[in-house]
Amino acid sequence: MKTPLLTFLLAFGCHAALTAQQIKAPDSLRSSTVPVVPAPAKTPSTEEIDKLAEEAQKALFKSVDKSGGGATATPGKTDVTQYTPYATSTPTRLPAQRLEDPALWAKDSVRKIAVMEVSFGGTRETVMIELFPNDAPQTVNNFIDHCDSGVYNGLAFHRAIEGFLVQTGDPLTSDESSRAKWGTGGEEKTIPAEIKRPHRIGAVAMARRSDKVNPERRSNGSQFYVTLGNYGVLEGKYTVFGQVVSGLETLKRISLMPVDANDCPVARIEIKSMKVITQKGPMQVPAIASGEGTRYVKPDAARGMVSRFFHRVW
């Protein structure tokens, strides 16, 4: 009699233990290995995404400046849909030509200066270009018209080749989603060739289609480039209409930026504004030198009202 009763009691006790509601253990006794489900991540706003992209771009520029340069393609392309001059072999360097110091221009001299504000590495830098209307009147008039009408504002530098040139002025570069077509725009209007001035370091010239499809060597309607060396391979082939007189070091830094297979800078480098002013007499050198070649004070005519006020006061 005892054995069946004992068996019944043991079975009843196990059943009660299995079916009874369990008491929740205190937090202090819970295992630390139990995974905690995180709260859903907050979707970043458009402003936050733009800020992150800007910070990433600044970091890219800084890293390239520290390393001394980025990867660039080797000149030698012959694609007629592009408007960039390319060297078919190692460019022949010409002896450097001594240019007239803008600080020593005659007091009664009158010159046309294009003042270009470039958004570069999270900051704005100024590049000033002397124009040569006597040597390339149609080209300069077209360029001034574009500046006055704001055609160049918001366009990007779409080609950069270290030690060779940088190029901009393609209307298609206003649209970041059209990168595949950058370098093919501005052909709605062309300008007759006005090939007189030589290519020297800092020379500003109009891009154009190749001789194969453009034997008259007519210039592209808006694209222009700046040479970063003295290259004989370009002589007598493109219309030179200007000369960088301040900010050449900025353009050299642009040529060091990482580029894609089409020599287009990976990070956007944009013209914020381009204005042509009349410079009378010599240009002023800032009291404190920048250490990056000779830079000149931006003329008052190229400043806004507030900037002119503070420039005169301080």
Structure description:
The protein is an alpha+beta fold. It has a domain at 76-281: Cyclophilin, CATH 2.40.100.10. Helix content is 22%, strand content 18%. It has an eight-stranded antiparallel beta sheet with strand order 3-4-8-6-9-2-1-10, with helices on one face. The chain has a two-stranded antiparallel sheet with strand order 5-7. A hairpin with a 2-residue loop joins strand 1 (110-120) and strand 2 (123-131). The radius of gyration is 32 Å and the shape is globular.
Task: Write down the overall geometry.
Answer: globular
Structural class: alpha+beta
Q: Helix count, per DSSP? A: 5
Overall pLDDT, averaged? Answer: 76
CATH top level assignment of the domain at 76-281: Mainly Beta
Distance between the termini: 112 Å
**What fraction of the residues are assigned to beta strands by DSSP?**
15-25%
Poorly predicted residue ranges? 5-10, 12-37, 71-82, 308-313
C-alpha-based Rg, rounded: 32 Å
Number of β-strand runs? 10
Order of strands, widest sheet = 3-4-8-6-9-2-1-10
**What is the CATH T-level topology of the domain at 76-281?**
Cyclophilin
Largest pleated sheet? 8 strands, antiparallel
Order of helices and strands, N to C? HHEEHEEEEEEEHEH
The CATH architecture of the domain at 76-281 is Beta Barrel
User: What portion of residues is helical?
Assistant: 10-25%
At the fourth level of CATH, the homologous superfamily of the domain at 76-281 is Cyclophilin-like
